[in-house]
Write a structure and sequence with these properties.
The protein is an alpha/beta fold and about 575 residues long. About 40% of the residues lie in helices and about 20% in strands. The longest helix has 22 residues, at about 490-510.
């Protein structure tokens, strides 16, 4: 029987360890404030309006859907948080999307926020919903829809109706999930007009409250077109869709009864397979507290740290099997456990590394020839063995210069890009700090469809740093030491002002909040929450029996790599 040789890694912090960087605390405080603002939805007025109708808010529905006391993981919470539509803010973009436990099964939950414009879809809302659906499709997680949607926010319809990721693509994902055999269960709680009416229909089970309705067009449009004065419930309520059209399966008196029925439907699904795939010991906390990541990883992206110390605060019992340690030392690859489940890990090493002459002459956080080949080979082996893969990015880019070109780094990088593009196993990419240039692509950035991409408050995502870009833009005005040439005071002031403006703009664009608002990550997480997110990802990757293949550890291709001395 092949043995998976897990060894202790990492170091404890010395007694005189420096405190966590104040910059990290400041940014995580800002993150918490932004999260709270996004969760507020339509605010107190919106909540009161919903309560007067005798309904629960979207977040109340979600809270009662989930197992009491269980953790949930919200996806896309900060997407579009700083946008304005017709002068209006749309916190959370009018929809709650998360991964959480219902009847001890991890599920994707998508709930229209009825406190905000009756659950309308704003610019960005369809993409947020589709992203949650894509997570379910990748992992085979059941999807529960809490539908209460008035359709598109019509003043901004041109931005949500017709594009590749417009509202119609939500129904395409409904269809792809159905074709893949992923369970979809819809609870229709209130207004479901136009697209909101289509959203639940392809679900395996559609349940309605007595006050809910699903219609192609609302009452005002029907009265204008056909002169008929009818209520929305008359047109598309449960009496129509449960009793006559067959578009819904059952009716319930109120939100409470419907929510209980949705939980019962999930209970009927197969239970999680994680207990079968995990070892008998089960999850074991790391030997070093995950909270120490705030001290291990410096806020200054130029300061180094040890990848081993990061992994030691993430994996079970701080045990790890490093694969191919004798080559491509700028990246650390290997296998560890999360919740007793095997996962592959890839991390960029920082600091100065040894060159061909044995001296510390190569900066870490850069991909060189052997490291690129090592990544490609390890990724391929993990795919062959059915292991979910976790990338811990902190990368400046590829090696550059004549030697790099002669060694064919372009071709090697293309090989890695091809592998990332065609990988079918679950992938979670974490942007620890730097996510720069083509290195961001090579380390399985969002363009290559990872199942989840997480950011931290230290994430910096850009092709080029602001200072470097400013130097390139104003190079004709600079001397060999990159100082402004001895020109007139007016020109010097103009150049210096222009360089500062470029640096400041790039810094704003790289800020974690801007990244989250653009949708360049699924969630920005506190460093102390990172293990919880990764553990959820591991459990979700193993939950669905038969949805994807997991080799048993005796026949891993990874063993062959080590036997060959790689």
């Amino acid at each position: 029987m092949a043995h998976v040789p897990l060894f202790p890694i990492g170091r404890g912090l010395p007694l005189a360890a420096r405190p966590a960087d104040a910059a990290i605390h400041e940014r995580e405080t800002l993150l918490e404030r932004l999260h709270n603002e996004a969760r507020a939805g339509g605010g107190t007025r919106g909540e009161q309006r919903v309560s007067k109708r005798g309904q629960w808010t979207a977040r109340e529905r979600v809270a009662r859907l989930l197992d009491p006391g269980s953790a949930s993981f919200e996806v896309g919470l900060l997407r579009g948080f700083d946008a304005r539509f017709e002068g209006k803010a749309a916190p959370g973009l009018g929809v709650v999307t998360l991964i959480g436990r219902i009847e001890q099964r991890l599920c994707v939950v998508i709930a229209n926020d009825n406190t905000l414009a009756s659950g309308a879809w704003w610019p960005g809302t369809p993409e947020k919903i589709q992203r949650a659906q894509s997570v379910a499709l990748s992992l085979g997680l059941p999807v529960v829809y809490a539908v209460d949607c008035s359709g598109l926010f019509l003043p901004e319809q041109s931005r949500t109706f017709s594009g590749e990721h417009g509202a119609g693509a939500i129904f395409r994902y409904n269809s792809l999930l159905a074709a893949r055999g992923v369970a979809q269960i819809a609870g229709v709680y209130g207004d479901c007009i136009a697209g909101g009416g289509y959203m639940p229909i392809i679900s395996d089970r559609v349940l309605m409250t007595e006050s809910a309705y699903m219609v192609i067009a609302g009452t005002a449009l029907i009265k204008g077109a056909k002169g008929a004065a009818l209520s929305a419930v008359d047109i598309g309520g449960p009496e129509v869709h449960v009793q006559r059209s067959g578009c819904a399966d059952a009716r319930f008196p109120d939100d409470e009864a419907l929510t209980a029925a949705l939980r019962l439907e999930v209970r009927r699904l197969p239970t999680s397979a994680t207990g079968y795939f995990a070892d008998a010991v089960g999850p074991v906390a790391p030997a070093f507290p995950v909270e120490e990541l705030l001290q291990v990883i410096p806020a200054d992206y130029r300061s180094p740290y040890n990848a081993e110390d990061v992994l030691a605060r993430l994996v079970d019992a701080s045990l790890f099997w490093e694969v191919m340690p004798h080559t491509g030392e700028e990246v650390m690859v290997g296998v560890g456990k999360l919740a007793g489940l095997y996962c592959g890990f890839i991390a960029n090493r920082q600091g100065m590394l040894k060159g061909a002459d044995g001296r510390l002459s190569r900066p870490g956080g850069v991909l060189y020839e052997s490291g690129i080949a090592k990544l490609s080979l390890f990724r391929r082996a993990c795919a062959d063995d059915g292991l979910p893969l976790i990338w811990l990015q902190d990368i400046s880019g590829f090696d550059i210069g004549p030697e790099a070109e002669e060694k064919g780094l372009l071709g090697l990088g293309s090989n890695l890009i091809y592998g990332n593009s065609t990988l079918t196993e679950p992938v979670c990419t974490v942007l620890l700090r730097k996510a720069s240039g083509a290195g961001y692509y090579a380390m399985h950035g969002l363009p290559y469809a990872p199942t989840l991409q997480l950011g931290t408050v230290l994430s910096r995502q850009a092709v080029m740093e602001g200072r470097t870009l400013a130097l390139a833009r104003y190079r004709p005005h600079l001397d060999d030491k990159f100082q402004v040439r001895g020109e007139s005071a007016e020109i010097r002031q103009e150049v210096e002002s222009g360089m500062r403006a470029i640096e400041e703009r790039i810094e704003r664009d790289m800020h974690f909040s801007a990244m989250a608002s653009r949708g360049d990550c699924d969630a920005v997480v506190r460093l102390a929450e990172l293990r919880a997110w990764l553990t959820m990802f591991a459990e979700a990757s193993y939950q669905s029996t038969g949805f994807r293949r997991h080799k048993n550890a005796r026949i891993w291709s990874l063993h062959e790599l080590t036997r060959l001395g790689l």
